[in-house]
UniProtKB/TrEMBL annotation:
Protein name per Swiss-Prot or TrEMBL: Methionine ABC transporter ATP-binding protein
NCBIfam families reported for this sequence: oligo_HPY
Similarity-based family: Belongs to the ABC transporter superfamily.
GO BP: peptide transport
Protein localization: Cell membrane
Organism from which the protein derives: [Actinomadura] parvosata subsp. kistnae
Pfam families: ABC_tran, oligo_HPY
GO molecular function, one term: ATP binding
SUPFAM superfamilies: P-loop containing nucleoside triphosphate hydrolases
GO cellular component: plasma membrane
Keywords: ATP-binding, Cell membrane, Membrane, Nucleotide-binding, Transport
Length: 345
């Protein structure tokens, strides 16, 4: 895509008809020696203030690459964005100059990464790392910035924040380190927060606490939250809507309640059936057969056809569009009615 860059930052204040963030027909490719990896193939979604969108899919489904494109942290090249828009408050971020993009990144759209231990710098205290946000972006003095760091550590419920502000990352548990990452990401009151698998490295109880914390912070600040995960079980209580990704496309998009009640895509159904349930103790856990496709050589027709129990002949040749099921729901499956009704072929 030819880039005509601008320094005009997205407006603040009222949104009018525009969503807070809108990803529109986004395509991302990686040009490698082995060929072109089509990582994101026409993804569209929106998130509004105070809204939580869960983006769900296996590794390689394109969910994290889409997030990195929103943040503007893809290595380009080898990444190329041949098509699409990422509108933040109506301004296409892909058209912003790098200078303007830097002012959006971290300040107005922030991101929490999966692995807090490698994201934090081991040789600086956590207080120093949190307070850096205020020193660099707000021009605060060291002592004022450190006070703000303690406030933030309190806000993300780190016990004895005042005493622990001078500790190093390795002195904290995994859950506490993730809280520190969350503190850093919300330091500058972002309007959109992207959490990329924020609880994957944590045990189940701590996962629930971190999810609860994110939901609480979001309620307080009315951020738009994009929660990226491979685990449908994690998002049930916190998401408003879900976008399920497979092979770089959204295959189902719906309010969270609709998806849990009755999925309209065989892949979503497979993900739901894979969640362990206490009432099925002793039974084999369901797993979707086969492996995610090679993005260098996507299957013809519907990318899910080699693994799909609902497959028909036309699935091998015809790419399913995102069929509109209702005003808020879509499924990229030719046979979404049968899936919704639970009629396996
Ligand atoms: Fe399965 Fe066909 Fe639907 Fe693809 S389009 S998910 S192969 S039934």
């Amino acid at each position: 895509m030819k880039k005509t860059s601008t320094n005009v930052l997205p407006a603040e204040g009222g949104l009018g008809d525009e969503p807070l963030l809108a990803v529109d027909d986004l395509h991302v490719e990686f040009h490698t020696r082995a060929g072109t990896v089509r990582a994101v193939n026409g993804v569209s979604y929106t998130v509004g203030p105070g809204e939580t969108l869960a983006v769900l899919g296996e590794s390689g489904s394109g969910k994290s690459v889409t997030a990195q494109a929103i943040m503007g942290i893809l290595d380009m090249p080898p990444a190329v964005i041949p098509k699409g828009q990422i509108r933040f408050r109506g301004t296409d971020l892909l058209k912003l100059s790098e200078e303007a993009r830097t002012q959006v990144r971290g300040q107005r759209i922030a991101m929490i990464f999966q692995d807090a231990l490698s994201a934090l710098n081991p040789v600086f205290t956590v207080g120093w790392q949190i307070s850096e946000m205020f020193r660099v972006h707000r021009g605060m003095s060291k002592s004022d910035a450190m006070k703000k760091a303690v406030e933030l550590m309190d806000r993300v419920r780190i016990p004895a924040a005042r005493q622990r502000v001078n500790d190093y990352p390795h002195q904290f548990s995994g859950g506490m380190r993730q809280r520190i990452m969350i503190a850093m990401s919300i330091a500058l009151d972002p309007e959109v927060l992207i959490a990329d698998e924020p609880t994957t490295a944590l045990d189940v109880t701590v996962q629930a606490q971190i999810m609860e914390l994110l939901a609480e912070l979001q309620r307080e600040s009315q951020m738009g939250l994009i929660l990226i995960t491979h685990d449908l079980g994690v998002v049930a209580d916190v998401a408003d809507k879900i976008a399920v990704m497979y092979a770089g496309r959204i295959v189902e998009q719906a309010p969270v309640y609709d998806i849990y009640k009755a999925p309209a895509h065989p892949y979503t159904k497979g993900l739901l059936d894979s969640i362990p349930r206490v009432d099925q103790k002793g039974q084999d856990l369901y797993a979707i057969k086969g492996l995610p496709p090679n993005l260098l050589d996507l299957p013809t027709g519907c990318s899910f056809h080699p693994r799909c129990p609902y497959r028909q002949d036309n699935c091998v040749t015809d790419v399913p569009p995102l069929y509109e099921i209702s005003g808020t729901r879509g499924s990229a499956c030719h046979y979404w009615r049968e899936v919704l009704d639970g009629d396996q072929q």
